[in-house]
Write a structure and sequence with these properties.
The protein has about 300 residues and is mostly helical. Helices cover about 75% and strands about 0% of the residues. The protein has 2 domains: about 15-45; about 45-285, Orthogonal Bundle (MetI-like fold). It has 13 helices and no strands.
């Protein structure tokens, strides 16, 4: 059974039409227009030149490095983001409010400042960085430092997507499961995880998109060594600086397309899953009204 269609809205007034037109124009000016212009410039020399530029060794190396960083950052921040959201919502301890406020620091500070903070703490001249280098584990100007930069700038995304859902559903079901003898893992796997799965999916997707597009922090901590520590966004920067704009257009189109396609696919899967679940619930009890909780996106 499909969800009921919304009631037909009354005829729009002129102020409403003006507001919709203004919003669409603003969206086109800031988002749609630049995106179309970018794709047009990337494809202007032809599809063959597009793929030839993308197949150059430096471009492939930068994409591969970006993929490795994105994968590591997404896995780590998804796991720890779920844990932090549960701790902040379910637990009460001294310093919780401070932790909740400081968690948004990556949203507030420039990524360049984030990279500088990592250099101060983990750079080759710092106490921690020098000792790790002596142990054969250099951080800054190497892959570990780039992963740390990605972890820093994306830390709040999963937490802020999952925490509102946990707050909304409460802990009653978890407490009942615990009373009935379920251990914490069974409770998490069968009750908590299904409840927050779309929050996790949205948060993880935002982490991927943010990691693909990160520039400032990586520029500071990587050293931007071609073929070694140059990510896709740093490749775009170098192409612009080298007066090779077509390479920058091509790589930018690929990165933007990956992020946009992933978010669109996620939304499509979520809507399809919701329709299936809604139909199953309605077939069992038509009087039940399903409530969907969407994660709050904070940037």
């Amino acid at each position: 059974m499909k969800p009921p269609k919304p009631a037909t809205s009354p005829e729009m007034t002129w102020p409403q039409r003006f507001l919709i037109a203004a919003v669409l124009a603003w969206f086109g000016l800031l988002i749609l227009g630049p995106a179309v212009a970018l794709v047009r410039r990337a494809m202007e020399p032809g599809i063959g030149r597009f793929f030839a530029k993308l197949a150059e060794p430096d471009a492939i190396e930068s994409l591969w490095l970006t993929a490795k960083i994105t994968a590591a950052v997404t896995v780590c921040n998804t796991i720890f983001g779920i844990g932090m959201a549960i701790v902040l919502v379910r637990q009460r301890f001294w310093g919780r409010r401070l932790m909740d406020g400081v968690l948004d620091l990556p949203f507030a500070v420039s990524p360049v400042i984030a990279g500088l903070m990592l250099i101060i703490l983990y750079g080759p001249r710092s106490t921690i960085g020098s000792r790790l280098s002596d142990m054969g584990l250099p951080i800054v100007y190497h892959l570990p430092g780039m992963i740390l930069a990605g972890l820093f700038v994306t830390l709040p995304l999963v937490v802020r997507s999952v925490a509102p859902i946990l707050e909304e559903v409460g802990s009653d079901q978890e407490e009942v499961a615990s009373t009935l003898g379920a251990d914490w893992w069974t409770t998490f796997r069968k009750i908590t995880l299904p409840t927050i799965r779309w929050g996790i999916a949205y948060g993880s997707a935002l982490v991927v998109a943010r990691s693909l597009g990160e520039f400032g922090a990586l520029l500071v901590v990587s050293g931007n060594i071609i073929g070694r520590t140059q990510t896709a966004t740093l490749y775009v920067h170098d192409q612009v600086e080298s007066f090779e704009p077509h390479g920058a257009y091509v790589m930018s189109t690929v990165l933007a397309g990956l992020s946009f396609g992933m978010l669109i696919a996620l939304e499509a899967v979520r809507n399809r899953t919701h329709r299936q679940e809604y139909g199953a619930e309605e077939s069992q009890d038509p009087s039940v009204e399903r409530k969907t909780i969407r994660p709050t996106r904070r940037h």
